Amino acid sequence: MFSKYTVFVKNVPIGGHNPVVIQSMTNTNTLDTEKTIKQIINLSNAGAEIVRVSVRTLDDIPSFKKICEISSIPIVADIHFDYKVAIESIKAGASKIRINPGNIGSLWKVKEVVKVAKDYNIPIRVGANSGSIKKEFEILNMPRFKALAESALEEVKVMEELEFNNIIISIKSTDAKENFLANKYISEKVPYPLHIGITEAGIYEDALILSSAGLGALLLNNIGDTIRISIAGDPIKEVLAAKKLLTLLGFKKGPRIIACPTCARTEINVEYLANKVKEWTKNIDEDINVAVMGCVVNGPGEAKHADIGIAGTKTGGAIFINGEIAETVLFEKLEETFKKYIKNLISERKKINTDS
């Protein structure tokens, strides 16, 4: 179930019946203000709605403050150990802070952080990952997924005892099944929004497969309010992958390009054309299924569930709408003709929606 509570990270609502929010994290040196701001702009342009920035010590605060002032999207302060850094990050303009209460130290330090968060009305993200399961739960020999979830619930309990409910919870494991079971368990226990992800998912291809399986399973079970696909490398790839996952699963508007797996009847390079169609439709923010099929023998029929498609011919392609061929053109006219039909399709939809 999606969370019952809605938490605002600046102007971005997380939880309730709001859309799933995409986030990522900068990998620049926070002291390099210009480089960090540039990366945040690039992440925002790619589709990130929230960006997390590491605030390591008090030395990072002046730069972090400037970053918060300039950024057009909410900035989350990632804090470890020092409660003073958490407090100063809030005062510097953080829209949310990420802490582990257990790492902050004495309860009075956590209280100080919570007090300032209340004063500034910003949420706190708490939780656990597979590397921070509390020893007392491991000693009880309970299943790891439950120990992971209970470790996070301990952090939530600290917040609740301080009468603080402006909370987002994050549970992440490197194991997709454990990750699913832990998030499912905690979603049934508390009403707070959940930030989901697979921690340390790996390099690009591995991270895509693991995160798609792990996060897709959660989202299809209505669990998860904000996501990050963790990839070792360029964070822009994280955002593009998250955006595509949400689109393909129907949680975000956009075109879905389907393509046949090819066979001996194929008369075009399907992979090449599918990539071209992907490029032609990249700026469309409507839910449209586009099919790219290798031949006209049974391509349109097999893809009649698509809104629009192209079936390959020896000299070009046949444009089909709802399984019926509308026009056959040469290669050099394919892009122009396809764009004309898809523009008409979008216009007709908008007209129907307006009239109704």
From TrEMBL:
Catalytic activity: (2E)-4-hydroxy-3-methylbut-2-enyl diphosphate + oxidized [flavodoxin] + H2O + 2 H(+) = 2-C-methyl-D-erythritol 2,4-cyclic diphosphate + reduced [flavodoxin]
InterPro entries in alphabetical order: Dihydropteroate_synth-like_sf, IspG_bac, IspG_bac-typ, IspG_C, IspG_TIM, NO2/SO3_Rdtase_4Fe4S_sf
Enzyme Commission number: 1.17.7.3
Alphabetical keyword list: 4Fe-4S, Iron, Iron-sulfur, Isoprene biosynthesis, Metal-binding, Oxidoreductase
Keyword Cell inner membrane (UniProt): no
IspG TIM-barrel domain boundaries: 6-242
Metabolic or biological pathway: Isoprenoid biosynthesis; isopentenyl diphosphate biosynthesis via DXP pathway; isopentenyl diphosphate from 1-deoxy-D-xylulose 5-phosphate: step 5/6
Pfam name, any one: GcpE
Keyword Metal-binding included in the entry's annotation: yes
Binding, [4Fe-4S] cluster: C260, C263, C295, E302
Residue ranges of every copy of the IspG C-terminal domain listed in the record: 257-343
Co-factor(s): [4Fe-4S] cluster
Biological processes annotated in GO: isopentenyl diphosphate biosynthetic process, methylerythritol 4-phosphate pathway; terpenoid biosynthetic process
Entry's Gene Ontology molecular function annotations: 4 iron, 4 sulfur cluster binding; 4-hydroxy-3-methylbut-2-en-1-yl diphosphate synthase activity (ferredoxin); 4-hydroxy-3-methylbut-2-enyl-diphosphate synthase activity (flavodoxin); iron ion binding
Family: Belongs to the IspG family.
Annotated function: Converts 2C-methyl-D-erythritol 2,4-cyclodiphosphate (ME-2,4cPP) into 1-hydroxy-2-methyl-2-(E)-butenyl 4-diphosphate.
Protein name (record): 4-hydroxy-3-methylbut-2-en-1-yl diphosphate synthase (flavodoxin)
